[in-house]
Write a structure and sequence with these properties.
alpha/beta; 19 helices
Amino acid sequence: MTARLVSASAVVGPEGIRGDALLLDGATIVAVGPRASLERPGIPHESFPGATVVPGLIDAHLHPVSYAGYLHSAGFKSARDVADVRDRVAAAAARLPPGTPVTGMRLDDESLAERRLPDRTDLDRAAPDHPVLLHRYCGHVAVANTAALAIAGIDRTTPDPSGGSFDRTDEGDPTGVLRETAIGSVAIPLARHAPPALTPDNVLDALHALAGAGITAVGAIAGLGDGPWAVFGNEADALAAVADRSPIRIGVFVIAATPAALQAAAARLEAAGPRVEFLGVKIFADGSLGGHTAAMHAPFTDAPGAIGTLRLDPERDRLLAETALEMNGRVAVHAIGDRANAAVIDLFAELIRAGADPARLRVEHASVLDPGDINRLADLGIAAVIQPAFLDSEAAWLEKRLGPRIRNTYPFRSLLDAGVILAGSSDCPVEPPFPLAGMAAARDRAGVMPAESLDARHALGLFTSGAAQVNGWPEPLQPGSPADFTVLDRDPLRATPAELRDTAIIATWVDGQPVAAGAGMDPWKD
């Protein structure tokens, strides 16, 4: 027995204080309880005086390769106006050889003085000798300049792709604003024009930054280089390439267009290494509230002609879901608008009637839900993976976008009270990869519908036991479970939301070994 004792002021889980020590046998938890009852003569002892040990924090839905791309590309979330965006694009272009694509992320029209996205002419002025593609921070809208559109062969004669659209002038010319699948129409040719520059070491840097944020495992979303994030290459292959060096556990949900592509990606991931595994398929039913592409039953309050984009294809997506289930995988479907959520629940109900295990089905986001659909989720046994940090970013404009439907938006408490299994995520790089901030947002909700807030115990559960459950992983900090835990400088169950946002990560342990200690690489640059 390679025993080790780890002690702190307290060991805390969603159920409360469980003791002040952990007894480990190599990479496995043996027991949790009072130090006095777990001490053994001669075994090593690691002590964290004044600290609190919690189960290893898990982000149930995160894009690690896109996050690596964010850390190595231009950022725009803090841009003040369109002129500032142009200046940042010009600065990025000046560092690159002529003709090299300029890519950027986290562009936010709601934060710009003009309250609009830049168009291709704005970007042409900033980088006349480079193709440019900037992603809105939600990931469901992007802007390309004329050079990027030309590489993609897009002009006024190009029809809108299925599940997406090009914004156009009154004359029919594309403005450069791309919505949903239209982003891939530019990103894929751009990636062929200039192969993605991300290296395995870049991806590893991002994974170490996640460990520094207290994260021990993620439910990773990964494309195959044939979608909106094609500029970062084949994300599933990038994760497989670092499987033997990853500091954290990575369960991968693959975005695939065909069952054959899904099966091939799953085989590569399963053969990659001990800390990377195939978890299932990721499917999109709609877009985002910020981009007006979430599929809604009725028009957006601030865009009366827009009801969003329903991307769910019942025949294609049912086949992908069945393929994942046949491989003992899971099905994760992105649904934000009320119409999209209803359609996804319909699809899941069909799968369950055909014999699918509801525990393998999860709705990603579940942002706007009719009350009846909350009950349907609960009755069917389908989990919801929620992103409390969205509230921090959206509070200033959410009611403007939705009007009275804000009462049905991010209904965390209603979902919990109905009996829906909840897991937490950041959807990074949409939001920063900070589980503690996510817990705080679940509790204070940035002042949006406070009746839907969660208490401290359930907020911690989002990013520990709940996230483990929806990924099919063992209950954390139980005998026989992996020795994954996070050490904090305060008890998250006693901290206020403000204190929780300011809580420090002292150490992160995976498989009974420290993988991060203190302040490591800055995990965010905005």
